[in-house]
Amino acid sequence: xxxxxxxxxxxxxxxxxxxxxxxxxxxxxxTNFKPxxxxxxxxxxxxxxxxxxxxxxxxxxxxxxxxxxxxxxxxVF
Length: 77
Fold this sequence. Notes:
mainly alpha
């Protein structure tokens, strides 16, 4: 068993760079590709931007309704 494991390790070490590159390409193209740290931060930034836009819209809506109410109140007089 030990010999088999050692042989497997030797075989892994002896692989050339081209096969490593090909394997990496395969990993990138596969569906279960795990995102890198950069893409995770990009996703977080996108989420923050979406939340910010949502809150800005809510704030705009709130103030718009307030000023519209004041305008209507003043237009009565």
